[in-house]
């Protein structure tokens, strides 16, 4: 006859070797309550940092959008001014229209040289777009609002 291995009867308690038993006189912690308390403390410490990071990312994205708006306005103004037969008021109006459509306040579009009609074919013209940060930033929790965003675009006259 073959001896079958001895299988202890089923018990609801998990098996613990004797060396892992709790030392006498030491209080046993409630596991779930201590984990909940630790998670609450961690959340209280990390939540302000997470909020700071989220608002910082939003502000950086907003600044990048302002810079992109200035770049598009400068390029479109330069493209309009570089055409044959284009006038300075038409080109400046194109740049201001782009800034207005994108809800930019107090943006300034400058054309250098002032008289584009006298510029010879192949002559260099520059457009300078300046946008103040203070009036165009709906979020100002993390980054400073002083200063301006300035973009310069250069093209050759056709």
Summarize the structure in words:
A 3-stranded antiparallel β-sheet has the order 1-2-3, with helices on one face. The protein has 158 residues and is α+β, with helices and mostly antiparallel strands.
Overall structural class, as computed from helix and strand content, comes to alpha+beta
Estimate percent helicity.
40-55%
Tally of helical segments: 2
Distance separating the two termini: 106 Å
Q: Determine the strand fraction and express it as a percent band.
A: 5-15%
Which spans have pLDDT < 50 for at least 5 consecutive residues? none
CATH topology: Pantoate--beta-alanine Ligase, Chain: A,domain 2
The name of the CATH architecture is 2-Layer Sandwich
Question: For the residues shown, what is the average pLDDT?
Answer: 82
Biggest sheet: strands, sense, closure?
Answer: 3 strands, antiparallel
Overall 3D form: elongated
Overall number of domains: 1
Order of strands, main sheet, comes to 1-2-3
CATH class: Alpha Beta
Q: N-to-C SSE series?
A: HHEEE
- Rg, nearest Å: 34 Å
Secondary structure: number of strands: 3
């Amino acid at each position: 006859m073959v001896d079958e291995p001895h299988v202890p009867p089923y018990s609801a308690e998990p098996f613990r070797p004797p060396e892992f038993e709790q030392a006498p006189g030491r209080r046993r912690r409630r596991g779930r309550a201590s984990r909940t308390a630790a998670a609450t403390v961690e959340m209280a410490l990390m939540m302000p940092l997470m909020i700071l990071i989220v608002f910082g990312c939003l502000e950086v994205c907003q600044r990048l959008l302002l810079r992109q708006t200035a770049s598009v306005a400068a390029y479109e103004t330069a493209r309009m001014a570089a055409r044959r037969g284009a006038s300075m008021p038409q080109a400046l109006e194109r740049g201001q229209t782009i800034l207005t459509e994108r809800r930019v306040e107090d943006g300034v579009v400058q054309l250098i040289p002032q008289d584009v009609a006298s510029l010879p074919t192949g002559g260099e013209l520059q457009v300078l777009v300046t946008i103040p940060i203070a009036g165009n930033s709906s979020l100002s929790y993390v980054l400073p609002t002083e200063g301006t965003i300035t973009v310069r675009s250069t093209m050759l006259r056709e």
